[in-house]
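Hey, weird one. I pasted the ClpB_D2-small domain-containing protein sequence into the form twice and got a warning about non-standard characters only the second time. First submission, copied straight from the form history:
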Amino acid sequence: MVRIDMSEFMEKHSVARLIGAPPGYVGYEEGGYLTEAVRRKPYAVVLLDEVEKAHPDVFNELVGDREAQRAAVMDAVGSHFRPEFVNRIDEVVVFEPLGRDQIAGITQIQLSRLRSRLAERELSLELSPEALDKLIAVGYDPVYGARPLKRAIQRWIENPLAQLILSGQFMPGSSITAKLEGE
């Protein structure tokens, strides 16, 4: 994780310190605090701590318009990589964090895979709305996105279900409904 204390960027001119000087200015080749940190750790999460203390121009530069961001990314890619590689890039996609609707969709995809495996044993599976909501909640992490979802399904649905199937509690043709405890 890269942590940047935004209270250090309270003045208007501090934009250059954060993202680097514009072309033609002294220090253009050096890059700014943020650009250098991202260059050194390209897959890091960037935490803009106390962003509310930064000068509005600094904030505006960070959120700027997406076309300018894409153009800046392509300029950086073009200056770093050979043209043969750059010509293979079809599109630059700006990362958008997953929302609840996307997590719910991913959950349904994962559950449909489980249902397919259960159908081979002539079993069907349904989740109560409350159980589905709980699974969506525990399967999402703001840092890791939907990565914990598969483990949550395994821990809360697959493992207990496997134990019940192995114990003979569900036979072919059974319809299984997963609910929250106390539901």
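That's the output from the first submission. The warning seems to come from a hidden character in my clipboard, not from the data itself. The mean pLDDT is 85.
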